[in-house]
Write a structure and sequence with these properties.
Layout lengths: L1 H10 L30 H11 L3 E19 L6 E17 L4 E18 L2 H8 L2 H20 L22
Helix pairs in contact: 1-4
């Protein structure tokens, strides 16, 4: 659900899409298989599109999460402790185009984020680190948001700094 929240938040600002969130859930397949599951049958896509008056469907078809503690440190002078972990999700989205009965996007990817925690004692740092659900939620949301950026046009502002060519300095050229 958190992944879909990220996708929804990205797409609701799109001029290209009007998002309708459904509660349709289907029985999943083997998560350990690296490939996508079989596509949703077109009869089911048609049924969902008709019910929600939609032209296309984006389906989250693969999801697996993991959190691995990776390191810890004792602060200078033996005070303060920190711990680090890596939160990751393996995600697969498909976008079904009803009019052409084609899958117009199929993207399987892994998104990871480092997660740092600290405290006065080792126990404090470990307790914060053990709140791994927060890390999984954040990395899941971000993955959905990033997929939304993939399928929807978005604006990016770029700032550039220009320098006058200094005599004799080819690095600035």
């Amino acid at each position: 659900q958190t992944t879909l929240n990220g996708l929804n938040d990205m797409l609701k600002n799109s001029v290209k899409f009007t998002v309708i969130r459904t509660n349709v859930a289907m029985l999943g397949q083997d998560l350990l298989n690296a490939a996508f599951p079989e596509p949703i049958p077109w009869s089911e896509i048609e049924k969902i599109c008709k019910e929600y008056q939609a032209d296309a469907i984006i389906a989250l078809e693969k999801y697996d999460s993991d959190f691995i503690p990776t390191a810890g440190n004792i602060g200078a002078g033996g005070t303060g402790f920190s711990a680090r972990g890596v939160a990751s999700v393996n995600i697969g989205f498909r976008m079904y185009d009803l009019a052409n009965k084609s899958i117009i996007d199929e993207h399987l990817f892994t998104h990871t984020t480092n997660w740092d925690a600290g405290g006065e004692t080792i126990l404090d740092a470990v307790n914060v680190m053990m709140q791994k659900n927060n890390a999984i939620r954040q990395v899941s949301y971000d993955a959905g948001f990033f997929y939304g950026k993939r399928v929807s046009p978005s604006w990016h502002y770029i700032t550039r700094h220009y320098f006058r060519h200094a005599k004799g300095d080819d690095n600035l050229a």
